[in-house]
Design a protein that fits this description.
The chain is an alpha+beta fold and 499 residues long. The protein has two domains: 4-115, NADH:ubiquinone oxidoreductase Nqo5 subunit (Beta Polymerase, domain 2), CATH 3.30.460.80; 181-498, Cytochrome-c3 Hydrogenase, chain B (Orthogonal Bundle). Helix content is 41%, strand content 17%. It has 17 helices and 14 strands. Helix 5 (206-220) packs antiparallel against helix 6 (227-255). It is globular, with a radius of gyration of 22 Å. The two termini are 34 Å apart.
Length: 499
């Protein structure tokens, strides 16, 4: 058997994952991607395994709602052929494996460090010596932006090569901040500590990452949450989507100097996050989602408040959106700017809006539904042009869709029958994978337990890990003055990438 197929949030014995020799491992995973247009890599990483490294590859088949898991045991000192040469979507996964374990790849197209984590294999590699691509030319010039930015934005460096105002190449270097979160999941032993870690992976994706952790943990403990818990989690995800998309539209208006849009969208974001404050005491939804229980059950009174809030929000949101998407000066900046083609999006393995803007069908709510998304019968929203306009339009349409979902969900509020449950210990010697469609795209958490059910490995993948290279390609042949609106329309995460 070349792989084992599992469903989203399914726990299996670690021993059930086939262990192949590396050539068979490579061939099997590349072949599975070629055989299905709906397949893509959701995670690929290494685990220290005695004196070697066990590689685990997770290929999602979106048409069958399954994830194919396979593994290979490799020695760090030996050279290996890459997945990336045959499928560019693997390039960053393999760069991370190289950085973490020193595994050498003979034919990787871009074998540079990814994050410079504290526990990297080669500590002589330093971020100040990062080998940026360069071109010797008297006609071209380089522009460096960051890593320190104005305001509160997180650190990241953007190195442009330009011909006049035209961008020929952009290289994005991250890795300036680390909290060692994956290692902390192993070191911290209390469930509350781990839930708090999940909430702080990325501050704009509290619901997304915490639902992923919670679903994974409950699966490992063989616990099935009640409808009240699933309702709270689904609502939190869709409210987070509305809040962040609204704030993003505000920022996009700021980047094109459309101050009315900036002000109105910014104002509209506030009551959404204030509802989280009303619900659980935190505007980012921290404390709301917990494994096996909820400290803040959704009540009929809260549902009524939410209905009133959405009625007021929707009226003003539709009015300002009508203005924005019919404003010639805005359309002139949005349309045909920052284009990522479908072929590029597919080759890079992009997810979320960064995929759906180019008609690439990537949405976990549709392909691997969890919580109440199967009940909602979620429908994909797609655009075809892959430009700033497509990304803005999708955010508007997703907000409309989320509002409709929330109105449906709160028509019937179940009693809080599972407010507190004593969870069993996690299954020993097991593997679990959880996929969640956050507002930015596909979130993946994976865990491995030891013989006593203790966590021995925890792996996090934020959707930004897939999408930063998409931004680098999208800005090519655009004027450098269009970079801010391109960057904001992708709206990727620094800390979610660096961990």
């Amino acid at each position: 058997m070349s792989h084992i197929s599992i469903s989203n949030n399914e726990t299996i014995p670690l021993s059930s994952i086939p262990e192949l020799d590396y050539p068979a491992f490579l061939e099997q995973n590349i072949l599975s991607l070629k055989n299905s247009a709906g397949s893509h890599c959701v995670n690929y990483y290494g685990i220290p395994w005695n004196d070697n490294v066990r590689l685990i590859c997770c290929i999602a088949n979106d048409e069958l709602s399954s994830i194919n898991i396979s593994s290979a045991l490799v020695e760090t000192g030996k050279p290996f052929n890459t997945f990336s040469k045959q499928n560019p979507a693997f390039e960053k996964f393999e760069r991370e494996i190289h950085e973490n374990f020193g595994i050498q790849y003979t034919d990787h197209p871009w074998l540079k460090p990814v994050r410079y984590p504290f526990n990297r294999y080669n500590k002589n590699e330093n971020i100040t010596d990062y080998p940026f691509f360069s071109i010797d030319s008297e006609e071209l010039h380089e522009v460096g932006v960051g890593p320190i930015h104005a305001g509160i934005i997180e650190p990241g460096h953007f190195r442009f090569i330009c011909n006049g105002e035209q961008i020929l190449h952009l290289e994005i270097q991250l890795g300036y901040q680390h909290r060692g979160i994956e290692q902390l999941f192993i070191e911290k032993k209390k469930l509350l500590q781990r839930a708090t870690l999940a909430e702080n992976i990325a501050g704009d994706s509290v619901a997304g990452h915490t639902v992923a952790f919670t679903n994974l943990w409950e699966s490992m403990c063989n616990y099935q949450p009640g409808r009240d818990l699933q309702l709270s989690r689904t609502l939190a995800l869709e409210l987070e989507r509305i809040a962040v998309h609204t704030g993003n539209l505000s920022a996009m208006c700021t980047d094109i100097a459309y101050q009315l849009g900036s002000a109105v969208y910014g104002r509209l974001r506030t009551p959404i996050i204030n509802f989280f404050q009303r619900w659980c005491g935190n505007r980012l939804a921290k404390g709301l989602i917990r494994a096996g229980k909820t400290n803040f059950p959704l009540t009929n009174e809260l549902a009524a408040e939410l209905t009133t809030l959405l009625n007021a929000y929707e009226r003003d949101f539709e009015e300002i959106s009508e203005e924005l998407f019919n404003l010639p000066s805005a359309l002139a900046r949005f349309e045909k700017t920052g284009v990522l083609t479908r072929e590029q999006a597919e080759n890079l393995g992009t997810v979320g809006i960064s995929a759906r803007m180019s008609a690439l069908e990537r949405d976990i709510r549709y392909s691997h539904p969890h919580d109440l998304y199967r009940e909602l019968n979620h429908q994909l929203l797609l655009k075809n042009h892959g430009d700033v306009h497509s990304r803005a339009r999708l955010r508007k349409r997703e907000i409309d869709q989320s509002i409709a979902y929330i109105r449906t969900l709160i028509q019937s509020i179940p009693g809080a029958g599972t407010q507190s449950v004593q969870l069993a210990s996690p299954s020993p010697n097991s593997f679990t994978l959880s996929l969640v469609e956050g507002w930015r795209g596909e979130i993946c958490h994976a865990a491995v337990t030891g013989e006593n059910g203790e966590l021995i490995h925890y792996k996090i993948k934020d959707p930004s890990f897939h999408n930063w290279m998409g931004l680098a390609l999208a800005v090519r042949n655009n004027e450098i003055s269009d970079f801010p609106i391109c960057n904001k329309s992708f709206d990727l995460s620094y800390c979610g990438h660096d961990l």
